[in-house]
């Protein structure tokens, strides 16, 4: 079971100034200025348009990125890839994340996205999945420093919008290539790098290595390094910034567990007490998410919404039996009936661990 331990701010090896104020001014990323320093990390299957819109509505989100999109399929007009990049005027600022082991396709997709009006391209160099690595994409690129630099250089030269990279610390403990790659990428003109503080070999096991992230921050000159991994609370995000020196943080699973994490960080940045949502706001959040999903996916929205229930249930005080129904509902009427019951029985929950945390993949990464 994956339990959450708060990030350890007392580690003697980290020399943290716990009181110095953090810079919360808008972050410059190439030609873009991002309103806050707390970003949504891409989570394939979750961070689609509806989720991004409903999170943005709560406030405080600085940047969102689409799920990873296979460049070749995107260029060929594959319907699923095109669906992954669907956006709306309120879905802004947004970057599109692409991956490929074929440089020509990656560059072609970046150009095509710029032509379509997208304002940021993120290259995936962190995905550990065998089917992505097998074709030379994702974290596999971190093993070939020359190849990775070649692709990044071509992408930066091919488009005028900012190009960013998301990567891990390296392939495994013996091959920590992130600091050297980050230094090279800065010279090549990338606008920012997100570092997930694990190796590819770790998959999602163990804890994010904050010292590893700090090594990358220290390896670059001025390039913004976005820290990522295991941030579950607003306090974790602040601790990550203090411990690593990274100017911004990307939050993935923590946003599914607590969609208000960005608004709370924004409260903090503005010098306000961090606000907890009322039960009415929590229920409205569920309705808004489902509404946005229905606008995009019509009859598929029930099926697509169900998997969020296991993440939301604990934070939103959804009684266990109603969470279970939310994981199986089949129609709008049934959704509304469950919502009425959640409203009447809000907070009557027994389970203290979010159901989703019992199910995170834990086996050998090769088997995913
Ligand atoms: C279900 C799932 C899907 C993911 N999909 C992507 C993806 O499409 N692109 C990517 O760069 N990272 C992806 N990641 C990695 C996350 O962006 C992030 O780096 C990782 O989960 C650690 O951050 P967190 O602890 O805040 O979730 C995914 C992670 C999970 C759990």
Automatic annotation (TrEMBL):
Residues 40-338 form the DUS-like FMN-binding domain. Keywords: Flavoprotein, FMN, NADP, Nucleotide-binding, Oxidoreductase, RNA-binding, tRNA processing, tRNA-binding. One of its GO terms (molecular function) is tRNA binding. Its EC number is 1.3.1.-. SUPFAM superfamilies: FMN-linked oxidoreductases (SSF51395). Pfam families: Dus. The active site is at residue 127. InterPro entries: Aldolase_TIM (IPR013785), DUS-like_FMN-bd (IPR035587), DUS_fam (IPR001269), tRNA-dHydroUridine_Synthase_C (IPR024036), tRNA_hU_synthase_CS (IPR018517). Its cofactor is FMN. It catalyses: a 5,6-dihydrouridine in tRNA + NADP(+) = a uridine in tRNA + NADPH + H(+); a 5,6-dihydrouridine in tRNA + NAD(+) = a uridine in tRNA + NADH + H(+). The keyword Nucleotide-binding applies. FMN binds at residues 97, 166, 196, 252-253. It is an enzyme of class 1 (oxidoreductase). The keyword RNA-binding applies. Catalyzes the synthesis of 5,6-dihydrouridine (D), a modified base found in the D-loop of most tRNAs, via the reduction of the C5-C6 double bond in target uridines. Belongs to the dus family. This is tRNA-dihydrouridine synthase. It comes from Planctomicrobium piriforme.
